[in-house]
Amino acid sequence: MDTIKKLAEITCSTPASVYRWINGLNPPAPIKQKIIAEYLGMSVEELFPSKDE
Length: 53
Known about the structure:
Blueprint (H helix, E strand, L loop, with lengths): L2 H8 L4 H8 L7 H11 L3 H4 L6
Helix pairs in contact: 1-2
């Protein structure tokens, strides 16, 4: 299973949503950010930096 499909599965989202997150069009909800970060072994801040930074 590729990463896009796995991220969609673990966040109960569609692959299209995951593509939008990756391309910066729409960030995922905070709870989904946490799920993704835990799955990838990274922090939420690393994956989804604040626009203020």
